Amino acid sequence: MERAGRLLARMRLPGVNLTAEQLARAAWPQAVGKRIAAHARPRVLAGSVLIVEVDDEEWQRQLSFLSSQILARLNQILGRELAGRIEFRPGAPRRMPQRAATAFGHEGKAIADAGMRMAYRSSRRKASA
Q1: Is 64 exposed, middle or buried (0-12, 13-18, 19+ CB in 10 A)?
Q2: What is the pLDDT of residues 76-120, one digit of tens each?
Q3: Which of 63, 69, 96, 118 is the most buried (most CB within 10 A)?
Q4: Which of 83, 88, 66 lies closest to 27, judged by CA?
Q5: Mean local confidence (pLDDT), 1-5
Q6: Domain 2-90, what architecture?
Q7: Residue-wise burial string across 110-123, b where 16 or more C-beta atoms lie within 10 A, e elsewhere
Q8: Given a cut of 60, is residue 13 above it in pLDDT?
Q9: Cα of 53 vs its chain's centroid, Å
Q10: Residue 24 burial by CB count (10 A; 0-12/13-18/19+): exposed, middle or buried?
Q11: pLDDT the model gives residue 6
C-alpha cells in the first residue's frame, strides 16, 4: 500500500489535481490506523501545519505525544513531506440522536408555542398510526 501511495503522490494524471490537503485526508487512515482515524480527522492544511480535529482533550493529549511518529508515517506513505507538524484540536461535542419524546418532553409539553405544540402532536399521531 505504501508504494501505491507514493506512486499516486508522484503521478500527474491529466484532469486530476489533488491538493496536499486531499492527499492528507486520503492517506490518514493508513497512517494512523482505523481506531485512531475514527477519533481524529484531518481538517485543513494551513501552510506547513496539518490541523486534525479530535473527539476530546484526552485524544488531543495522547496524539500530541505521537505527532512526530504520525507525521513521519504520513510522509512515508505519500512519498514526500506533506507538512512540518501536526496540530490536534478538540472538535465540537457531538450530540447523539434523541427520540422526539425525549427532546421535547412527553407529547411536546416543553414546546412553549401553542401552534407548534399542536402541529407536533398532530405529526406524532400520524407517525404512530
Answers
A1: middle
A2: 988 888 888 999 999 877 677 766 555 555 667 778 888 888 888
A3: 63
A4: 83
A5: 54
A6: 2-Layer Sandwich (3.30)
A7: ebeeeeebeebeee
A8: no
A9: 6
A10: buried
A11: 58
Listed by start position, the domains of the chain span 2-90, 96-129
In this prediction, residue 70 has a pLDDT band, given cuts at 50, 70 and 90, of very high
Q: Averaged over 22-35, what is the pLDDT?
A: 91
Q: Which residue carries 405544540 as its cell?
A: 117
Residues 6+ apart with CB under 8 A from 78: 5, 6, 9, 23, 24, 27
pLDDT given at position 11? 61
**H helix runs in the chain, sequence order:** 2-10, 20-32, 34-37, 57-65, 67-78, 100-104, 114-128
Q: Residue 52's closest CA among 18, 19, 24?
A: 24
> Residues in the chain, how many?
129
Cell of 87: 496540530
How far apart are the C-alpha atoms of 70 and 11, rounded to whole Å? 23
Tell me 108's DSSP state: G
